[in-house]
Amino acid sequence: MVNSSFFARVSEGDCIGCDLCEERCPMDAISMDDVARVNLDRCIGCGVCAVVCPTEAIKLFRKDKDRQFVPEKDLFTATMAIHQQRRET
C-alpha cells in the first residue's frame, strides 16, 4: 500500500557499518554485513535511512521511468485500479 518513485542505495566505500540505518528502517529492508545492504523488494523509498547516515553512504535514487509510482487522479480511480490489480493476480 506504500510506494514511492525512489529506492535506497548504499555506497559500500562510504559505509562504516554503524547500524543506524538498519535500526531506523520501518520496513526491515536493511541488513548489515560489514556494510549495509538494502533489500529492494522491501524498500519503499521513504528516505529514513538516508537522513540518519553519518557518512551519507545511503542515498535515494529515482526509479526507472517504467517503475515509478504515479498516483491515480482521484479515490474512485485508485480503488478501481487496486481492484483490477487484485483480479489479475
Layout of secondary structure:
Elements: E1 6-10, H1 20-24, E2 30-32, E3 36-38, H2 48-52, E4 58-62, H3 75-88
Antiparallel strand pairs: 1-4, 2-3
Number of strands: 4
The overall average pLDDT, rounded, is 88
The CATH architecture term is: 2-Layer Sandwich
Which class best fits the helix and strand makeup?
alpha+beta
Placed side by side, the strands forming the largest sheet appear as 1-4
Give a short account of the largest sheet. 2 strands, antiparallel
The share of residues in helices is 25-40%
The CATH class name reads Alpha Beta
Tell me about this structure.
- The chain is an alpha+beta fold.
- The protein has a single domain (6-88), classed as Alpha-Beta Plaits (2-Layer Sandwich).
- 27% of the residues lie in helices and 18% in strands.
- It contains three helices and four strands, in the order E-H-E-E-H-E-H.
- The protein has helices spanning 20-24, 48-52, 75-88, and strands at residues 6-10, 30-32, 36-38, 58-62.
- The chain has a two-stranded antiparallel sheet. A two-stranded antiparallel ribbon has the order 2-3.
- Strand 2 and strand 3 form a beta hairpin.
- The two termini are 16 Å apart.
- The model has no long low-confidence stretch (mean pLDDT 88).
